Structure formats: structure tokens, C-alpha cells
């Protein structure tokens, strides 16, 4: 795109700047729309599982429900508690929202269809997701209220615990693919199982890691079996208790953007991303575009997230910590050893 | 031009937030400024082409170390008046540390071109990603220091566990397998107590 703008007579700097801004908007705006629609979809999923109707009043089949909600929070007053730390109180939701968006810069929608194709893409995702905890901590501390503060402490401990096992799971994938670049990780999965199935998740050495990653990604985004951060029976609404109107909506949008991101990461790292699941050319004259496969896989994982949220009861906090430190961490460490051993054996041989 | 602008942006913000770390009245604000400084330093490293180090800086320092800092500082019950009264008492000590750091920086800058380690030679620009370059060096030339560093970290970890672990006699640990193995027929007993007798537990 930069080259096109240069042809139109712009200098390189301006062409690059305009191209980047357009690229960001092309990703961010559909993402916002997707968040609105996906909140509606999730409410419909829960409703179906609980034998209710779900939102069905605003617009056809209730499709405009999220926009009505958005308009409502937009028109309300932003209340700042008098004893709150004003600057930090307002910055916290902005941090959550921004961090949820910046990660999309490296998510590949097809070969070459990615905002920045950097060779440390996976590390960038780890770095950005480790920033997410600050939005929660700062919100909890700046509210100057007990429930948000407890929630912030819980959130920080939970994110740090599960990031450790996510790190090791990512190491397993990186070892297998031999690169940190997300596009190359997806391409390395092409025909991984007998040259037919394009998915790391069905590889016997990586399948347990795919499960660990799915569960850890639920814990990382504070989704239901692990939503102790905002367990309403204990902590009201957690770190969002003191927030109202747009600042609350930013938390909400950031949370769902993170959930979609985790769905995308599940699809990209273990289930072939933008590749078709079977490496067979069924329709020789037509290829289904990669982004459709990616979005289809993300929708599947989103359904799994919603399904789990509707059916599984909440963990106790000590059970959560036990799962993270005593089960996932040793398991993922074991698989790092197994996978690197297997790769050394197949690539170098025992004698080396 | 974009690179120059980005450099001045990151450099100014790094220095400004480093100054703010010292001058912020509230320790929590200090830690947050420190995080800001780490973040902008990572931006500077990106501009140098050291993307691996930049990402590690964000993951390790911003994502883990600073979270723990923030955790501790947030939970401290800080008496601001006592903090400020110690200012003049601790000033000479702080000045000495600042002087030592300044001297070290001067020595480091002047030794940069003389030292045998780098020899003032600029690294050749290659197309090899610097994760691979770093890995090749770590597992060939610097294998021994690398393994030693790993061993030291292991010892530190075990040491920390030994120092903080204490077995408490009064705590009843949870046995998860027992909870999982429980069956309804051994957990629930149906009784039909007669009037006025109650239930024996």
C-alpha cells in the first residue's frame, strides 16, 4: 500500500504514515463491530443453553441490542469517586482497551495480510498480554475502595500464574515450528499430520498443550470457570465496581477484544490459522480465502468459550492457583522436555 | 524522518519518566513511572534493531518484575510524613550513590572503544533475525557462562524456596483426590428420626 501512495506523489514518510493508519483502521473498526456482534451472539448462546430467548427486542432478532447498550452507556455520566486517584482512575480503562487492540497488529489473516509481519510476533503477543494486567491493577488501586482492590490483587496473581504456563506452551509451538513469526508458524502446520491435516492440535505431542492453552486462555481473560476477579457474589463487579458510562464500556470492549484475540491465538497456534483444515484441494478452480477459515475457527472457539461459561461452575481461588502452579506448570515443562527431545531425536539422532 | 522522530519521542519520554520516578510523591506513582521508563527504553532498543532484547525487556521487567514491585508497594501502609522527614537524613547517601553511578557511566563510555570485548567495532548488519544470532552465540562461544548463569538462577530459586518455606503443623492441607473420590452414598445418609429424638452425628 505504501508503494501505491508513493505513486500518487507522496513522499515515502507520508505514504508510510497514511498506509499504516489505514491498515490500523481496517483492522480496528471491523474488530469493534465484531465485539458488538459477538456480545449479542454470546448472550444468545447462554440463552439457548439456559432455555431462554435472549435479547430479541431491539432490531430484527435483537441484533441491534449491543448498539442500544453502547448508546446507553455513552449517554450516561462518568462518575469519579471523590477519594479516587483521578488521573489513574481514568487511565486504567484506556490501558485495558488499548492493550487489547495493539496485539492485533501481528495477527495474520492470510499470507501477507497482516499489519506488521515481525519475526518476534509471538514474543510481541506475550509482551502485550503481560501489559493487560496493569489496566486491572491500576483500576483496582485508583478506585480507592476495598472490593476493587481485592479484585486487582486476585487479577494480578491469576494473570502472572497462568502466563507462566502459557509461556511454556508457546515455547512448545515455537520449538515445533522453528520460528517466532506467526505467519510462518501457521505455514509450518501445513499438512503436519500425514501430509493431510493442517493442525498442530492433532499432533499427539502437542494435543495436551492445545488443551492447556485453551484452558489457560480462559483463565487469562478471566472467563467463567476462572472469573474470580469479578465474582459478583464475593466482589460486586471486581475492579469495575466504581466505574460508570464510557469508562465502564471501555473495560467491557477490552475484555471481549481480548476474548476474540485468545480465540484467534488458539486457532493460529494449534488449529492451522488461515489454512483449510484438510490439506486437500477439493475445489480445484476456487480457493476459500484464508481469513474466512480463520474467522470460522475463531467463531468455533468463541462458541466453546460461551459454552463453558454457561455450563461450568466457578472455581475456588485456591483451586485456581493449584491448577495453574501444580498441574499446568509441571505438565507444560514436561512437554517442553518431551518435544525438544523428540525433535532432537528426529532431526539429529541419538548419537549426536 | 520517522525514525528520528520516534527516537526523540522515546528518549524524551524515558528521561522524563525516569525523573518523575524520583520526584513523584506517591510510591505507587513512582513504580508506574518506572514502568513507563522501561517501556520507552524498549522502544529505543527496537529502533536499534534489537527486537529480541526489547521484547524481553517488556516481558520480564514490565510484565513480571514491575508487577511484583507494584504489588508490594500498593499493599504497604505508607506514612508520607515519615517518608518526607527522612529526606535530609538520606540525602548524603543518595548523593553518593548518584555520584558512583555517574562515575561508572563515564568510565563505561570512555572504555567502550578501548575494551577488548567489543573493540569499538560496529556489528555487521545481517538479515539473520537476532534471536537466531543470539542463540548461535549462546550455544557456542558463550556456552559455559550461559550454563553457569542458569545454575546460579537455579540455586537462587531453591534458596528462596528454602528461606521462605516453613511447614506449619496447624494447617490442614487439602487432599484433592479425597474430594474427587467422594461418592454420594458415603457422603449423604438418609434418616427418619422419631419425634423428640434428634439425629446422632
UniProtKB/TrEMBL annotation, chain A:
Annotated InterPro entries: NADH_UbQ_OxRdtase_su1/FPO, NADH_UbQ_OxRdtase_su1_CS
Transmembrane segments: 14-41, 88-109, 121-143, 164-187, 193-215, 249-271, 291-311, 323-345
Catalytic activity: a quinone + NADH + 5 H(+)(in) = a quinol + NAD(+) + 4 H(+)(out)
Pfam entry (one): NADHdh
Localization in the cell: Cell membrane; Membrane
Source domain of life: Bacteria
Keywords carried by this UniProt record: Cell membrane, Membrane, NAD, Oxidoreductase, Quinone, Translocase, Transmembrane, Transmembrane helix, Ubiquinone
Enzyme Commission number(s) of this protein: 7.1.1.-
Catalytic class of the enzyme: translocase
Membrane topology according to the record: Multi-pass membrane protein
A GO MF label: oxidoreductase activity
Major location category of this protein: membrane
Quaternary structure and partners: NDH-1 is composed of 14 different subunits. Subunits NuoA, H, J, K, L, M, N constitute the membrane sector of the complex.
Known function: NDH-1 shuttles electrons from NADH, via FMN and iron-sulfur (Fe-S) centers, to quinones in the respiratory chain. The immediate electron acceptor for the enzyme in this species is believed to be ubiquinone. Couples the redox reaction to proton translocation (for every two electrons transferred, four hydrogen ions are translocated across the cytoplasmic membrane), and thus conserves the redox energy in a proton gradient. This subunit may bind ubiquinone.
Protein family membership: Belongs to the complex I subunit 1 family.
Record's protein name: NADH-quinone oxidoreductase subunit H
Organism listed in the record: Sphingomonas caseinilyticus
Organism classification: Bacteria, Pseudomonadati, Pseudomonadota, Alphaproteobacteria, Sphingomonadales
TrEMBL record, chain B:
Gene3D superfamilies: NADH-ubiquinone/plastoquinone oxidoreductase chain 6, subunit NuoJ
Entry keyword Oxidoreductase: yes
Keyword Protein transport: no
Location(s), subcellular: Cell membrane
Residue ranges of the TM segments: 6-24, 31-50, 56-78, 90-112, 142-163
GO molecular function annotations of the record: oxidoreductase activity
EC number: 7.1.1.-
Domain of life: Bacteria
Major site of localization recorded for this protein: membrane
InterPro entries xref list: NADH_UbQ/plastoQ_OxRdtase_su6, Nuo/plastoQ_OxRdtase_6_NuoJ
Similarity remark: Belongs to the complex I subunit 6 family.
PANTHER family, alphabetized: NADH-UBIQUINONE OXIDOREDUCTASE CHAIN 6 (PTHR33269:SF17)
Purpose: NDH-1 shuttles electrons from NADH, via FMN and iron-sulfur (Fe-S) centers, to quinones in the respiratory chain. Couples the redox reaction to proton translocation (for every two electrons transferred, four hydrogen ions are translocated across the cytoplasmic membrane), and thus conserves the redox energy in a proton gradient.
Protein name: NADH-quinone oxidoreductase subunit J
Amino acid at each position: 500500500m505504501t508503494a501505491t501512495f508513493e505513486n500518487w506523489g507522496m513522499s515515502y514518510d507520508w505514504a508510510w504514515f497514511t498506509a499504516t493508519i489505514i491498515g490500523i483502521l481496517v483492522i480496528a473498526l471491523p474488530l469493534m463491530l465484531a465485539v458488538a456482534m459477538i456480545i449479542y451472539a454470546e448472550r444468545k448462546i447462554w440463552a439457548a443453553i439456559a432455555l431462554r430467548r435472549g435479547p430479541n427486542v431491539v432490531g430484527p432478532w435483537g441484533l441491534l441490542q449491543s448498539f442500544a447498550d453502547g448508546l446507553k452507556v455513552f449517554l450516561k455520566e462518568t462518575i469519579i469517586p471523590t477519594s479516587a486517584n483521578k488521573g489513574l482512575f481514568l487511565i486504567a480503562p484506556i490501558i485495558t482497551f488499548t492493550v487489547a487492540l495493539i496485539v492485533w497488529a501481528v495477527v495474520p489473516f492470510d499470507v501477507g495480510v497482516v499489519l506488521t509481519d515481525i519475526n518476534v510476533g509471538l514474543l510481541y503477543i506475550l509482551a502485550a498480554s503481560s501489559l493487560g494486567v496493569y489496566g486491572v491493577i491500576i483500576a483496582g488501586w485508583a478506585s480507592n475502595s476495598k472490593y476493587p482492590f481485592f479484585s486487582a490483587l486476585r487479577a494480578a496473581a491469576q494473570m502472572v500464574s497462568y502466563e507462566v504456563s502459557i509461556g511454556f506452551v508457546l515455547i512448545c509451538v515455537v520449538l515445533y515450528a522453528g520460528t517466532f513469526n506467526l505467519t510462518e508458524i501457521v505455514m509450518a502446520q501445513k499438512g503436519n499430520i500425514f501430509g493431510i491435516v493442517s493442525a498442530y492440535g492433532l499432533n499427539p505431542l502437542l494435543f495436551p498443550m492445545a488443551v492447556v492453552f485453551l484452558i489457560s486462555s480462559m483463565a487469562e481473560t478471566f472467563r467463567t470457570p476462572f472469573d474470580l476477579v469479578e465474582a459478583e457474589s464475593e466482589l460486586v463487579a471486581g475492579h469495575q465496581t466504581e466505574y460508570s458510562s464510557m469508562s465502564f464500556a471501555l473495560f467491557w470492549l477490552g475484555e471481549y477484544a481480548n476474548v476474540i484475540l485468545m480465540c484467534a491465538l488458539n486457532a493460529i497456534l494449534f488449529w492451522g490459522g488461515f489454512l483449510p483444515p484438510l490439506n486437500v484441494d477439493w475445489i480445484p478452480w476456487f480457493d476459500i480465502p484464508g481469513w474466512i477459515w480463520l474467522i470460522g475457527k475463531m467463531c468455533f472457539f468463541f462458541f466453546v468459550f460461551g459454552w463453558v461459561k454457561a455450563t461450568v461452575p466457578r472455581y475456588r481461588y485456591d483451586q485456581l492457583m493449584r491448577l495453574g502452579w501444580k498441574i499446568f506448570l509441571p505438565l507444560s515443562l514436561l512437554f517442553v522436555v518431551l518435544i525438544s527431545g523428540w525433535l532432537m531425536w528426529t532431526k539429529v539422532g541419538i548419537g549426536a | 524522518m520517522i525514525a528520528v522522530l520516534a527516537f526523540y519521542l522515546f528518549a524524551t519520554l524515558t528521561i522524563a519518566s525516569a525523573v518523575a520516578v524520583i520526584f513523584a510523591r506517591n510510591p505507587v506513582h513512582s513504580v508506574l513511572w518506572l514502568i513507563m521508563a522501561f517501556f520507552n527504553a524498549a522502544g529505543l532498543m527496537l529502533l536499534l534493531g534489537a527486537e529480541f532484547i526489547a521484547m524481553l525487556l517488556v516481558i520480564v521487567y514490565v510484565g513480571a518484575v514491575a508487577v511484583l514491585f507494584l504489588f508490594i508497594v500498593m499493599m504497604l501502609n505508607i506514612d508520607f510524613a515519615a517518608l518526607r522527614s527522612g529526606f535530609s537524613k538520606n540525602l548524603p547517601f543518595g548523593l553518593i550513590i548518584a555520584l558512583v553511578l555517574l562515575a561508572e557511566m563515564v568510565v563505561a563510555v570512555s572504555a567502550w572503544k578501548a575494551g577488548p570485548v567489543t573493540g569499538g567495532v560496529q556489528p555487521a548488519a545481517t538479515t539473520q533475525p537476532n534471536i537466531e544470532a543470539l542463540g548461535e552465540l549462546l550455544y557456542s562461544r558463550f556456552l559455559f557462562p550461559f550454563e553457569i548463569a542458569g545454575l546460579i538462577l537455579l540455586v537462587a530459586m531453591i534458596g528462596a524456596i528454602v528461606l521462605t518455606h516453613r511447614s506449619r503443623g496447624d494447617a490442614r492441607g487439602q487432599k484433592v483426590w479425597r474430594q474427587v473420590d467422594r461418592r454420594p452414598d458415603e457422603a449423604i445418609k438418609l434418616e427418619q428420626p422419631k419425634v423428640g429424638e434428634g439425629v446422632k452425628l
